[in-house]
Amino acid sequence: MPFGGGAGMVMSVEPIYNAIEAIDPKREYHRIYLSPKGEALTTKVAQHIAKRHGKLILLCGRYEGVDQRVIDLCIDQEISIGDYVLTGGELGAMVLVDAVSRYVHGVLGNNESAIDESFSDNLLEYPHYTRPAEFKGLTVPDVLISGHHKKVADWRKEQSLIITKERRPDLLK
């Protein structure tokens, strides 16, 4: 029960502290607490974690969260996956692992796949098409069939700008 009263329960300091210290007594791991109070998980945050931190400990809260002393004593970084509250941090941890792993060499079949995608230039990604060239009256834009690489690149950039302006204008600031 939380000091000061209030609804809900708080995860106790001692068992969490002991578990983390048993796993990482020399502080060799980067310790992350999944929390709606944390910094927002972005592409840049995921890339930073992938490049700088080989070993991770992810702490997933429940109820009203964990005792603040766990955060003060054991946690290097708090991360939030969005402006909402879940019943626990486990889904946030899965999102974090998936986002970070995309930037670990060898995880994706083609390392270039993580370069040109949504949020890589503060833009949402352009539309993609595959075979057949026509399906139920909808056709692939001619420029993508043209073989003209510069025109394809220009079209993709233009589409990214249009989509971002319509759906996420905040990214253009």
Describe this structure in words.
The chain has about 170 residues and is of the alpha/beta class. It folds into two domains: about 15-100, SPOUT methyltransferase, trefoil knot domain (Alpha/beta knot); about 115-170, tRNA(m1g37)methyltransferase, domain 2 (Trp Operon Repressor, Chain A). It is about 35% helix and about 15% strand. It has six helices and five strands; from the N terminus they run αβαβαβαββαα. The protein has helices at about 15-25, 45-50, 70-75, 90-100, 140-145, 150-165; strands spanning about 30-40, 55-60, 75-80, 135, 140. The strands form two sheets. A three-stranded parallel beta sheet has the order 2-1-3, with helices on one face. Strands 4-5 form a two-stranded antiparallel sheet. Helix 2 links the parallel strand 1 and strand 2 (about 55-60). Helix 1 packs parallel to helix 3 (about 70-75) and helix 2 (about 45-50) crosses helix 4 (about 90-100). The longest helix is centred in the last third of the chain and has 19 residues, at about 150-165. The N and C termini lie far apart (about 45 Å).
In short:
The chain is an alpha/beta fold and 173 residues long.
Beta percentage is 5-15%
What shape does the CA trace take?
A: elongated
Helix and strand string, N-terminal first?
HEHEHEHEEHH
Helix content: 25-40%
**Over all CA atoms, what is the radius of gyration?**
22 Å
CATH class of the largest domain: Alpha Beta
Question: What are its keywords?
Answer:
two-stranded antiparallel ribbon, Trp Operon Repressor, Chain A, three-stranded parallel beta sheet, 6 helices, 2 domains, alpha/beta, Alpha/beta knot, 173 residues
